[in-house]
Design brief:
This protein is an all-beta fold and 127 residues long. The protein is built from no helices and eleven strands. Strands 2, 4, 5, 6, 9, 10 and 11 form a seven-stranded mixed β-sheet that branches. Strands 1-3-8-7 form a four-stranded antiparallel β-sheet, with no helix packed on it. The termini are far apart.
């Protein structure tokens, strides 16, 4: 059974940085495309970033380009999202997601593509 566990959320001031991590077990990690999604209060869950199984390809939603970086360590079965220059509108619960066949690109930005999800970690950015 695939398990995803996020960590690293918290409270940060606008302009600050935060890193969230996700550990994966129960499936060969280097066979999984990994994604990060977020859900703000009262809003739908939205795509943030994705990374290919090898780490060679990444894709970001426009609002985080240049500020967020997704990376993975296939030796540790972890994926991270480094978030810089955070804004109050980045406040949300951040979810790690995994899939065996998702594309890294616009088609892979659909949450319905992903089979496995973590429980989420809260990120709050104060103004």
């Amino acid at each position: 059974q695939v398990q995803l566990v996020e960590s690293g959320g918290g409270l940060v001031q606008a302009g600050g940085s935060l890193r969230v991590s996700c550990g994966v077990s129960g499936f060969p990690f280097n066979n999984l495309v990994m994604g990060w999604f977020r859900q703000a209060p009262g809003k739908e869950r939205e795509f943030v970033a994705a990374i290919s199984w090898s780490g060679d390809s990444t894709y970001y939603t426009d609002s985080v380009k240049g500020r967020f970086t997704i990376s993975r360590d296939n030796t540790k079965n972890t994926v991270e999202l480094q978030m810089n220059d955070l804004k109050p509108e980045d406040t949300a619960v951040y979810y790690c997601a995994a899939d065996r066949v998702a594309a890294v690109g616009p088609l892979g930005a659909d949450r319905r593509v992903y089979d496995y999800w973590g429980q989420g970690t809260h990120v709050t950015v104060s103004s």
